[in-house]
Design goal:
Main location: membrane
Mean pLDDT: 79
Family: Belongs to the major facilitator superfamily. EmrB family.
Shape: globular
InterPro entries: EmrB-like, MFS, MFS_dom, MFS_trans_sf
Radius of gyration: 24 Å
Subcellular location: Cell membrane
CATH topology of the largest domain: Growth Hormone, Chain: A
Low-confidence stretches: 494-501
Order of helices and strands: HHHHHHHHHHHHHHHHHHEEH
Strand content: under 5%
Protein name: DHA2 family multidrug resistance protein
Distance between the termini: 42 Å
CATH class of the largest domain: Mainly Alpha
C-alpha cells in the first residue's frame, strides 16, 4: 500500500515538473509577442512616440539573449532550483512593474528586467525536462519544447489583442500571474536541488565583450532615428562601444584556447552556415508580427482583437509545417526541405508586397500562412543541418549560440524595420505632398480642417507604402541567405539527436 502511494506521489511530482517546465517555456515566449496587437493601447496609455514602439519587443529579447549564456554557470554555482525560482520571482516583479509603469522609460525598464529573467527560464526549463524524462524520449521532448516556445510567440498577438481590446492593456500582463504561481508551487515543492560538485570556469571576459558589442549595436539601432544618428554624441558612444566589444571578442576567440563559444563552432561549415540562416529566420519571424498588427489596426482600421485573430493562420501553418518536417525520414535530403522552406518564405513576403488600403483580411491571412509554412519547415531543417556534423561534446555550446542567433536576428530585425519604416514614411510623405497644391481646389480656398484631412490621407498612404517596403526588406534578407544552402553537406543522421528515423 505504501509502495503504491509512493509511486503515485512520484508520478504526481514528475508530471507536475514536466507541466511546470513547459508552462514556463510558454510563459516566457508569449510575453515576447503579447503586446503586439495591443501596442496601440500601450502607446496611448504611456504616451509613447512611434519610434519607441520597437523598444517594447527589442528590450525584452535583447536582455534575455545577453543573460542566456550565463544559465549553465549560474545553475552550477548556485543550484538550478534556486536560480529558477529567483528568475521566476524577478520575472514576476517585471510583470508588476509593467502594469505600474506611467512613462515609456519605466515600461521599457520593466521589460528589460522581465526579459533578463526569461533568459534563464527557457534553458533551465529544457534542462529540467531532459532530467525528468528518460533518454529515449529526449528527441520528442525537444520537439515539444520547440513547439511550446513557438506556440507562445505565435499565440501572443491573438491573446494580447483580445485582452487589450476588452480588458485594457494592463490585462496582457495580468494573464501571466496564474501561470507564474503554478510554476512556483510545482518547482518549489517537487524540484530537487542540483549543483555541480566542481565549479566550472566561465569565460566572463568573452561573454562581457560579446554582450557589449551586441548591446551597443542594439542601442545604436534603437536610438539612432530619434537622436539623428551620428549628429548625436550618444550614437557615437554606442557605435564605438559596439566596435570595441566585437573587436575584443574576436581577438579573444582567436588567441585563447578556452572561451564560452568553442572555436570548433566557427570552423564547422554546416553549423556556421545554418546559424547564419537561423539568424535570417529570426530576422523574418518576429519583425513580420511587429509590422502586421500595427498595419491592420492603424492603417486598415481593424480593432485590436480582430488584428490578433488574423495572425492565427500564420501560427497554425508554422506549427503544422514544423511537426511534419520534424517527422521527415532522415534518408530524405534535408537540403531540399530548406530550399522549399526558403521558397515559401520568399513567396509569402512577395505576396505581402501587394497589400493595399482597399484590401480585406484575406490577403493578410493567405500571405501569412504561406510564410508561416516556410518558417515552420526551416526551423527543424536548419536544426538538423547545424548539428548533423557537429561533434556531441560541442552540442551544449552550439545550442546556446544557435538559439542566440535567432534571438539576435529578431531583435536586430525589429530595430531595422522600425528605422526604415519611419524613414520611408517621411520620404514618401514628401514625395506625395509635392504633387498637392494647397491653395485652391475647384476655385475654393482650402480651410485648415480640409488641409489637416488632406495631410492625414497623405500620411496614411505614405505609411502603407513604407510598410510594404519593410516586407520587401524581409524578403530580400531571406533571398540573400538562400544561396548558402549550396554550402551545406548532407547530414549524418546518427549525429543528430531527436531526428525521426
Amino acid at each position: 500500500m505504501n509502495t503504491a502511494l509512493e509511486h503515485q506521489a512520484e508520478a504526481r511530482a514528475h508530471w507536475s515538473l514536466v507541466a511546470a517546465a513547459l508552462l514556463a517555456t510558454y510563459m516566457q515566449a508569449v510575453n515576447i509577442s503579447i503586446p503586439n496587437a495591443a501596442v496601440l493601447h500601450v502607446q496611448g496609455g504611456l504616451s509613447m512616440t512611434d519610434d519607441e514602439i520597437g523598444w517594447v519587443f527589442s528590450s525584452y529579447i535583447a536582455a534575455g539573449a545577453i543573460v542566456m549564456p550565463l544559465t549553465h554557470w549560474l545553475a552550477g554555482r548556485f543550484g538550478r532550483k534556486k536560480v529558477f525560482l529567483v528568475s521566476l520571482a524577478i520575472f514576476s516583479v517585471g510583470l508588476i512593474l509593467d502594469t505600474l509603469a506611467k512613462t515609456p522609460l519605466q515600461f521599457v525598464s520593466a521589460r528589460i528586467l522581465q526579459g533578463a529573467a526569461s533568459g534563464t527560464l527557457a534553458p533551465l526549463s529544457m534542462a529540467i525536462l531532459l532530467h525528468e524524462l528518460p533518454p529515449l524520449r529526449h528527441g520528442r521532448i525537444g520537439v515539444a519544447w520547440s513547439v511550446t516556445s513557438l506556440l507562445g510567440i505565435l499565440s501572443g498577438p491573438a491573446m494580447g489583442g483580445w485582452l487589450g481590446e476588452y480588458l485594457g492593456w494592463h490585462a496582457i500582463f495580468y494573464v501571466s500571474f496564474p501561470m507564474a504561481a503554478f510554476i512556483a508551487v510545482a518547482m518549489g515543492c517537487y524540484l530537487k536541488e542540483k549543483k555541480l560538485h566542481k565549479r566550472e570556469h566561465f569565460d566572463f571576459f568573452g561573454w562581457m565583450t560579446f554582450s557589449i558589442g551586441i548591446a551597443g549595436l542594439q542601442m545604436m539601432l534603437d536610438r539612432g532615428e530619434r537622436m539623428e544618428w551620428f549628429a548625436s554624441p550618444e550614437i557615437w558612444v554606442e557605435a564605438i562601444a559596439s566596435i570595441i566589444g566585437f573587436y575584443l571578442f574576436i581577438v579573444h576567440v582567436c588567441t585563447r584556447s578556452e572561451h564560452f563559444l568553442h572555436k570548433a563552432l566557427f570552423t564547422n561549415c554546416n553549423y556556421g552556415v545554418a546559424t547564419v540562416m537561423f539568424f535570417a529566420f529570426g530576422f523574418v519571424l518576429l519583425p513580420t508580427l511587429a509590422l502586421t498588427s500595427p498595419m491592420l489596426e492603424e492603417l486598415l482600421g481593424y480593432p485590436a482583437d480582430t488584428a490578433g485573430y488574423i495572425t492565427i493562420p500564420r501560427g497554425v501553418a508554422l506549427l503544422a509545417a514544423l511537426l511534419l518536417t520534424w517527422r521527415a525520414p532522415t534518408k530524405f535530403d534535408n537540403r531540399l526541405l530548406i530550399i522549399v522552406g526558403l521558397t515559401l518564405v520568399a513567396y509569402g513576403n512577395w505576396r505581402m508586397l501587394g497589400y493595399s488600403p482597399l484590401m480585406d483580411w484575406w490577403p493578410v491571412v493567405a500571405a501569412g500562412a504561406i510564410q508561416g509554412a516556410g518558417l515552420g519547415m526551416l526551423m527543424p531543417a536548419l536544426t538538423r543541418a547545424a548539428f548533423s556534423t557537429l561533434e556531441p561534446q560541442f552540442r551544449a555550446e552550439g545550442t546556446v549560440l544557435f538559439n542566440l542567433s535567432r534571438l539576435y536576428g529578431s531583435t536586430i530585425g525589429i530595430a531595422v524595420v522600425q528605422i526604415y519604416f519611419y524613414s520611408n514614411t517621411q520620404s514618401m510623405h514628401l514625395a506625395l505632398a509635392n504633387n498637392l497644391r494647397p491653395y485652391r481646389i475647384g476655385g475654393d480656398a482650402l480651410s485648415g480642417q480640409a488641409l489637416a484631412l488632406m495631410n492625414e490621407l497623405v500620411t496614411g498612404q505614405a505609411a502603407v507604402v513604407a510598410v510594404i517596403g519593410q516586407f520587401k526588406l524581409l524578403m530580400i534578407a531571406m533571398l540573400i541567405v538562400s544561396p548558402l544552402v549550396l554550402l551545406l553537406r548532407k547530414p549524418r543522421p546518427g549525429l543528430v539527436p531527436g531526428v525521426a528515423k
